[in-house]
Amino acid sequence: MILVLGPGGTVGRRVAARLRATGSEVRPASRSAAVRFDWAEPGTWTAALTGVTAMFLMAPDGVPVDAAFVDLAARSGVRRAVLLSSRSIETMGDARLLSAEQAVRDGGAEWTVVRADWFAQNFDEGFLRPAVDAGTVAIPVGGVRQTFVDAGDIAAVAVAALTGDGHAGATYEVTGPEALSFGEACAIVGTAAGREVRFDGTAGAYASAMTAFGVPSAQIDRDVAAFAALAAAGDSAPQDTVERVTGHPPKRFADYAAGASW
Question: pTM for the complete prediction?
């Protein structure tokens, strides 16, 4: 039995589907699933963990991974834990994910950390979709290149770690096959969607957009500082993780965009 947290999310639902395709028994758990799980309600944890031997672990943005849950999982018989994390968390000062990684490493089960770069699906399924629809994406990173990665490839790496041997103690940097600037990515999206999608990499444009969405100014300032640190770190370098772990090459961003629903 494999527990999948966040089974309705961009990666979580792909993990659950791939696990089922391999014949694994899957337990999706969330606040709205048949098996209820809530990070804020420890009373929901035991039922989610009963009979589970491995788990895909993630928490929604802004929600910490509670080390007490990770400890309980190991005591309950979970032998393998795979955590969805993110690249550049040291650079961007992401204390939440740094703490989550430490909790998994200290939790008592075999662990694998999947550090994914920017999800390609952020453009059509995630937080960038409203900006794409409006015609302008604003992220204050200038022209720095990122290795946008398809969520299906992230899920494939996670499933390999959940179901196969040889992944214990590994921290996988999961990327797409090429580094693109946001401007290049938006141009590709625009071509696939049949309309212009512009990119503005300035802090002012980002602050204006977030203010319009009601984001507090203090949060905007923290975001801008984190993105500035990411830009200062320079271009992201593609890794061979997807092919090395799964046996197939990662999907190109243009192929993702051509198959997305716009």
Answer: 0.96
